[in-house]
Design brief:
With 419 residues, the chain is an alpha+beta fold. It is built from eleven helices and seven strands. It folds into two domains: 203 residues, no CATH class; 125 residues, Histidine kinase-like ATPase, C-terminal domain (Heat Shock Protein 90, 2-Layer Sandwich), CATH 3.30.565.10. This is histidine kinase.
Length: 419
């Protein structure tokens, strides 16, 4: 809800975009936080000039009516009438200063209105301007003073056309209506400014939500890349290390290891493509290749066995295909991360992968490896994989536990809801 003028953006409501002349300069100054920078006062808009001229005309018209009544009043001398008209003319001219000094003008018109008939219109305009531009406490004080002086005014200068009581009542009502109109205008401006503030808050909240969505997307990419690529890259590391430490291996083994390295690199690229595709299009990537589920666990174990691992798979799920896709995918990632960690930190050990569960009971998956024989060279790792799996299981409504076990080995055990 904004309009741009040059290099400067002004938060003007969309309805008034391109129609700034319809808004008072005071409202534009509030809507544009940079308008009063360096003490610069807002310029009057076309609407301001029209309203100010109308107020001046109203003040002069009421002053002329007062001058006519003054001329027919036998209790007022000619010289006093000329002085009254002079004071009224100055008061009408001061109406053009009402935007700059609304409070000062309203205070100055209190004694002026008491001694001059022709200044009555200027006094009403000043009181109206005060109600528009200043808080209610100022309006209450000065409006109350004006109303309290009305009986005194008509006692000093009785109206030639109306009785005393009628004159007092009509003038009090006129002052009350003028103040009420000013308060209504002020309330409308306050409403417009509050809508501006709500629009700005909505824009800020939308920007924060977008930033949060971007951050969550980056975290999702990091988790997926770690879970998926760590498995493939570990296979590459194992076979590359075998070629490095056995340069005299038979040609068949070298060719087989090179083939596994090539295939693992191809699969790593394919998995990376799947990650980006999932983030863009849900559960499938741009090529339509589905994400792994529990049914793909056999292929994962077979791949690890081809890399030289000893893996025992104990599946007690009658039909893995009926497991919900999100639950199966999470279980697959847990098994994948467990095999990757076992390959890194406990090479040569026999890893046991167990899966069991049924609808209504949940799905339980565990990966266990015993303590490795001898010393194992430290392998780079940050532990973010298990942290990401714990978060993934929690988001799925389940739980995950991991840590050393009684036989010196390491285990990962998770439970996932299966409704």
């Amino acid at each position: 809800m904004s309009t741009v003028s040059g290099d400067k953006q002004t938060a003007v409501p969309q309805f008034f975009a391109g129609r700034r002349w319809l808004l008072p300069s005071a409202v534009l100054n509030e809507l544009d936080p940079d308008a009063d920078r360096a003490g610069r006062r807002p310029r009057r808009t076309a609407r301001d000039w029209l309203v100010d001229f109308s107020c001046f005309v109203v003040a002069v018209t009421i002053g002329l009516i007062g001058a006519d009544s003054l001329a027919r009043n036998p209790h007022v001398s000619e010289n006093l009438a000329h002085l009254d008209q002079l004071i009224g003319a100055v008061a009408c001219g001061a109406v053009w200063l009402r935007r700059r000094w609304p409070l000062g003008l309203a205070v100055a018109t209190v004694p002026v209105g008491l001694v001059s008939d022709t200044a009555g219109g200027a006094c009403l305009i000043a009181l109206f301007t005060l109600a528009v531009h200043r808080p209610f406490r100022y309006v209450a004080w000065l409006g109350g003073i004006n109303i309290a002086l009305i009986p005194l005014y008509y006692w000093m200068r009785p109206d030639v056309d109306l009785p005393y009581l009628a004159s007092v009542v009509m003038t009090v009502l006129m002052v009350a209506v003028v103040v009420a109109c000013g308060l209504v205008v002020r309330s409308k401006r306050q409403l417009m400014l509050s809508l501006r503030d709500r629009a700005r808050r909505a824009e800020t909240e939308a920007r924060l939500r977008a930033e949060q969505a971007q951050r969550l997307a980056r975290e999702a990419i990091a988790r997926e890349m770690h879970d998926v690529l760590a498995h493939r890259l570990t296979l590459l590391s194992v076979h590359a290390g075998a070629l490095e430490f056995r340069p005299d291996a038979p040609q068949e083994e070298v060719a087989r290891a090179a083939g596994v390295i090539r295939e693992s690199a191809h699969e790593a690229l394919q998995d990376l493509r799947e990650i980006i595709g999932v983030l863009r299009a849900g559960d499938q990537d741009d090529t339509g290749r589905p994400q792994p589920t529990l049914a793909a666990l056999d292929a994962l174990v077979a791949e690890s066995r081809e890399a030289g691992m000893k893996v025992v798979l104990d599946t007690r799920v009658t039909d893995p295909a009926v497991v919900p896709a999100s639950v199966g995918r999470t279980a697959y990632r847990i098994a994948q991360e467990g095999l990757t960690n076992a390959r890194k930190h406990a090479p040569g050990t026999e890893v046991t992968v167990s899966v069991e569960g049924a609808p209504g009971e949940g799905l339980t998956i565990s990966v266990h490896n015993p303590a490795p024989d001898g010393e194992v060279a430290p392998v780079p790792g940050s532990g973010q994989g298990l942290i990401g799996l714990t978060e993934r299981a929690t988001l799925a409504g389940g739980r995950l536990e991991h840590g050393p076990e009684g036989d010196g080995g390491f285990g990962v055990r998770a439970w996932l809801p299966w409704g």
